[in-house]
Amino acid sequence: MSSAEIPLDPLALELCALSKTFKLGGDMLHKPRTLKAVNNVSLRVPRGQVMGLVGESGCGKSTLAKMLLGLTPPSAGDVLINGKAIVNANQKALARHIQPIFQDPYSSLNPRQRIAQIVGLPLRIHAIGTPKEQAVKIEEMLDMVGLPKRAAQQYPGQMSGGQRQRWRLPGH
């Protein structure tokens, strides 16, 4: 796929017989072991729907998520977004269509970025507004979740656990 925009399709996300295997260990005397992290997963998510991925520890959730975000190539199968395979998709164009929401705010927030940088990332990716307009929008978003303006200049580690969870959930 070229770096052009991904066209819209009624089916937003489709995983077709997606699998990922890893080779573990091995040396001159021993063959590497094969680990099937994800095995033949297929699903369809229509436009406007939301999908949650749950499962026990070690069942392949993170590997599946990395494949559908285009961060890890599948060993077999395809990930289609808006009817187009994401193989060689432009990461910026892909990020306009699919984004994860992580459960754990401690590990999902970049500790080296200020909250304004993190919250403003989607505005920059989608080229929404000028930098000045983006700053105003960031303040509005922080206000929506009950955080003071000064939170924009804080790092995630300077916020309480409740604040870290709250800033990314509008209306909560």
UniProtKB/TrEMBL annotation:
Matches recorded under InterPro entries: AAA+_ATPase, ABC_transp_ATP-bind, ABC_transporter-like_ATP-bd, P-loop_NTPase
Chain positions covered by the region annotation Disordered: 152-172
TM spans (from-to): none
Keyword tags: ATP-binding, Nucleotide-binding, Transport
Domain of life: Bacteria
Family listed: Belongs to the ABC transporter superfamily.
Protein name: AAA+ ATPase domain-containing protein
Organism from which the protein derives: Vreelandella olivaria
